Amino acid sequence: MTKFVLALLAAKIPAPVVHLPPAPAPRNVPPGPGWDLPERRKFRFRIEDVAFE
Asked: Which of 10, 25, 35, 53 suits a disulfide with 31, CB 3.0-4.6 Å?
């Protein structure tokens, strides 16, 4: 077993190179029209406010 391992180390077999696809660009999703109006703002909830009720 050790002779085999030493032979592999002596041969210096390169590790296979894995080419990963490029990461997708971050999405630029603007909020819909009128989302910041005061009458719509009251319907926005934070996850901290509703998760543990």
From this structure: 35
* Distance, first Cα to last Cα, the chain: 60
Please give the structure tokens belonging to residue 31.
């909020």
The alpha carbon of residue 28 and the mean position of all alpha carbons in its chain are separated, in whole angstroms, by 16
Whether this model's pTM surpasses 0.85: no
List, for residues 1-53, the tens digit of each pLDDT value. 678 777 767 667 677 788 889 999 888 888 777 767 766 666 667 777 676 65
- Kindly report the length of the chain: 53
Q: Identify which of 26, 13, 46, 18 has the alpha carbon closest to the alpha carbon of residue 4.
A: 13
Q: Are 40 and 34 in contact (CB under 8 A)?
A: yes
